[in-house]
Design goal:
Elements (H helix, E strand, L loop, with lengths): L1 H6 L7 E6 L4 H8 L9 E5 L10 H6 L5 E4 L5 H9 L4 E4 L5 H11 L13 H4 L7 E6 L2 H5 L1 H6 L5 E4 L1 H7 L8 H16 L3 E5 L3 H6 L5 E6 H12 L7
Parallel strand pairs: 1-2, 1-8, 2-3, 3-4, 4-5, 5-6, 6-7, 7-8
Helix pairs in contact: 4-5
Bound molecules: 3-hydroxypyruvic acid and magnesium ion (MG).
InterPro entries: Aldolase/citrate-lyase_domain (IPR005000), HpcH-HpaI_aldolase (IPR050251), Pyrv/PenolPyrv_kinase-like_dom (IPR015813), Pyrv_kinase-like_dom_sf (IPR040442)
Protein name: HpcH/HpaI aldolase/citrate lyase family protein
Organism: Nocardioides ginsengisoli
Length: 241
């Protein structure tokens, strides 16, 4: 499983993900039939931005064998628990800015005695794996950057995931791959390594990807970008009539 691969990270290398902002179950079947399917290690289902709603997650899970990480829309513990109930491999929580917030998220994601999550009849309970879903905290603000080390230190945080687009806005940087951005991202990577947590980045940008330090989870591109790249390539020239 993705969680097992990440927790025993030695030699895992970079696990590459496709970020979903609008694809439905049929879209995932198209992905499964593509030549790239076997090289996609995880899917990031984005509930913060884009067109996918929480009730769309279970149908997506039924349509794919690729492990799914859901990027939540908020820190709401009820929202987090409902997403874990669907049977996702893990959650990516946006805008984590302190150890206190990270501890709250661990409590929301964990069953007693570690946390406060309730158990009940849910999709995840139909085929229990005994595996705790991954909890990945996003660092994408100035406060989050300053607190990256203390966030990574929190027991139950499995990884730190950088959001370079929000972070570049927060730092008033003109792009995601400036020197200052790369040094900020390297600092977050070092914090994750110090506490033996996974380190992830959503990139969506070749220049940034090429300049990144070693990454465990790399968001390669969004479904929307893949469609645009395909359209641009196929409709690059007018047909010769
Ligand atoms: C960001 O770059 O801000 C993100 O949230 C990427 O998903
Ligand atoms: Mg963001």
């Amino acid at each position: 499983s993705l969680a097992a691969r990440l927790r025993a990270r030695s030699g895992t290398g970079c696990l590459r993900g496709l970020w979903l902002s609008f694809l439905g179950p049929f879209g995932l079947e198209v992905v499964a039939a593509s030549a790239a399917a076997g090289r996609i290690d995880w899917l990031g289902v984005d509930l913060q931005h884009g067109d996918i709603e929480p009730q769309d997650v279970a149908p997506l899970l039924r349509a794919t064998d690729i492990p799914v990480l859901v990027r939540l829309s908020s820190h709401d513990p009820a929202h987090l628990a409902r997403m874990i109930d669907t049977g996702v491999a893990g959650v990516i929580v946006p805008g984590v800015e302190s150890a206190a917030q990270a501890s709250q998220l661990v409590a929301a994601a964990s069953l007693p005695p570690l946390g406060r999550r309730s158990t009940g009849l849910c999709r995840a309970a139909l085929a229990p794996t005994g595996e705790r879903p991954l909890l990945l905290a996003m660092v994408e603000t100035a406060a989050g950057l300053a607190a990256a080390d203390e966030i990574a230190e929190v027991d139950g945080v499995d990884g730190i995931f950088v959001g370079p687009y929000d972070l570049s806005l927060a730092l008033s940087e003109p792009s995601v791959s400036t020197g200052l951005m790369l040094s900020a991202i390297a600092d977050v990577a070092a914090a994750a390594r110090r506490w033996n947590r996974a380190f992830g980045v959503f990139s969506g940008n070749r220049e940034l990807t090429a300049a990144l330090p070693p990454v465990d989870l790399l968001g390669v591109a969004t479904d929307a970008a893949v469609l645009q790249v395909g359209l641009d390539a196929l409709f690059a020239e007018s047909p010769v009539l």
